[in-house]
Amino acid sequence: MGLLDLAEKIKKHPENYRESCKFKTLGMLFAKTSTRTRVSFEVGMYQMGGHAIYLDWEKTNFTLAKFEDEVAVLARYCDILMARVFEHDSIIRMARASSVPIINGLSNDHHPIQSLADLLTIREKFGSLEGITVAYVGDGNNVCHSLIWACSHAGVKCRISTPRDYNVHVPLPKNSFTWYETPEEAVKGVDIIYTDTWVSIGQEAETKARQQVFRPFQVNANLIAQASSRAIFMHCLPAHRGLEVSDEVFDGPQSVVFDQAENRLHTEKALILKLLGIEAW
Ligand code: CP
Ligand code: NVA
């Protein structure tokens, strides 16, 4: 909640934080592609008077040396590091090898910085997180796992509907969500319908099979009509229009996807300031 409060303050008055990260450098290591994560972190550091360095895993010597050695070196240059990796264990190993804070910029299992922006968006749209129910429809993936974690910390009720073989697959807090066989059951009366791609980065070879299995899980006008009349539509983006979400819903009045994407910037700034000890926890 402290992070969300700070993010809200930064969003309202970014000018108050123009010098907060003066002479600070964020190192950003990417083993996967990105639009939002890369740009929001880089812009965020710039707007706070700091600097960010983009490191493409393939074009660094991470491919040549022991992973922990390269991380230890980055930590000697940078004040804080962010990484987008395949195996979640790489984030854990980084945290062990680094003398500076590590931010998970997405792993196969988790996407926590996305969930921070999601919570801020939900709080803005409904004025509070109390009494809110979200239904996540689609693949039980990294975004879904982190959404469940975040909602369980924030007291937001979480329902999910995934195909049986594509359910969540990491340890999650006890009783933190309810699984439904069909999207229609899951979204009944909810305040938020959330979805993500059916094919995450690294799963491209499974595209055809996944598109077939997930077809009944598309978020379209029929599905959204079964949610609460005040319901909003959320998506972490990038979206695959016509697959996990119809154009009609994506472009419709209930969609908050661009506010949600913008909130990545404000919440990441708050996270950086807290991790660097510039703002108190
Ligand atoms: N939502 C998200 O993390 O987007 P990118 O993959 O473009 O960074
Ligand atoms: N589940 C997606 C999220 C992208 C932001 C992936 O891992 O590719």
Order of helices and strands: HEHEHEHEHEHEEHEHHEHH
Helix % is 25-40%
Low-confidence stretches: none
Judging by the overall fold, what is the CATH architecture of the largest domain?
A: 3-Layer(aba) Sandwich
Rounded Rg: 19 Å
Number of domains: 2
Explain how this protein is built.
The chain is of the alpha/beta class and 281 residues long. The chain has 2 domains: 2-108 and 264-276, Aspartate/ornithine carbamoyltransferase (Rossmann fold); 113-250, 3-Layer(aba) Sandwich (Rossmann fold), CATH 3.40.50.1370. It contains 11 helices and 9 strands. It has helices at residues 2-12, 36-47, 67-77, 88-97, 112-126, 142-154, 183-187, 207-214, 221-224, 247-250, 257-275, and strands at 25-30, 51-56, 80-84, 102-104, 133-137, 157-161, 178-180, 192-195, 232-235. It has a 5-stranded parallel sheet. The longest helix has 19 residues, at 257-275. The radius of gyration is 19 Å and the shape is globular. The mean pLDDT is 98. Bound molecules: phosphoric acid mono(formamide)ester (CP) and norvaline. Residues 34-37, 106, 114, 236-238 line the site of phosphoric acid mono(formamide)ester.
